[in-house]
Amino acid sequence: MESLLSLSFDYLSSNDGIKIRKGLRQIESLLAQICLSRSPSSTAAAADRRHSVIGNGATNGSPKQSTKELSSLKDDPAFREFFKLQEGFEWNIATRLVLTLERLLSHPQTGAHDLLLVSTLDTLHGMLLLHPPSRTLFAREIYMNLLLDLLEPTNCPAIQSSALLTLVTALLGAPRNVRCFEAVDGLLAVTSLLKGRETGREVKMRTVEFLYFYLMPETPQGVSGNGVNGGLQSPSKRLNGGGSPAHSREAETRTTEDKQALLGRHLSNVEDLVEDLRESAVFGANLV
């Protein structure tokens, strides 16, 4: 795994778009191997063959693959090895992807360049889900500003949409990151995108979805109702009973009412968003 990551990182550090694409594909392939499992039983293989005959299609000889449940990954040996590697700076994929984004932003904009940015954002999005501790990168203003730069009107809609999705993942379960987002005028950047005349309908929908997410009440860092953060802790941290005191300090958390007041400085109809959030229970919200 280390040799594959080393080669991928070499490609990502290049200024050649073809090499960057190759590095991204190698990382995507590694993540796919970790997250997908092949059907082991002959019964399943036979069912696939029957399905292909009924559907008049071909299976091309490849065993069926299914997505593993996120909650089960922590018990998978390959994932545990991968997670341990991500705990150190040398092999941390999210760090390399952020540096790749930073470098790509300095390049002239072309169609191929835009595709690279979207692909890098999508891979980063997946990495932040698989390794929640990597989200701490976005407690730093320099990296939070990097995501906000990708929301600028000069970027294409595909980049803006991918940046919004990645931003959600960067803030998920991380109050420190949300405070950083607020401190660097993230709310102004997002609401400006929403109100912009040149902003397309799909991007505006993504923006509204982001605002619904932002308005959700927060829980202290490390406390998660869905068990994902706790279940996917580093094996070494679980064995030692948690992280260091520096990591266990809770960041300031805010309620929906707190956030409504902040967002109201930039948007006039925040009350409608909150009411809709209450009525529709978006993201399973419980604001009562």
From TrEMBL:
The protein, known as: Cell division control protein 14
Region (Disordered): 224-260
Pfam families assigned to the protein according to its UniProt record, in alphabetical order: CDC14
Comp. bias regions, Basic and acidic residues: 247-260
PANTHER family associated with the record: CELL DIVISION CONTROL PROTEIN 14 (PTHR34065)
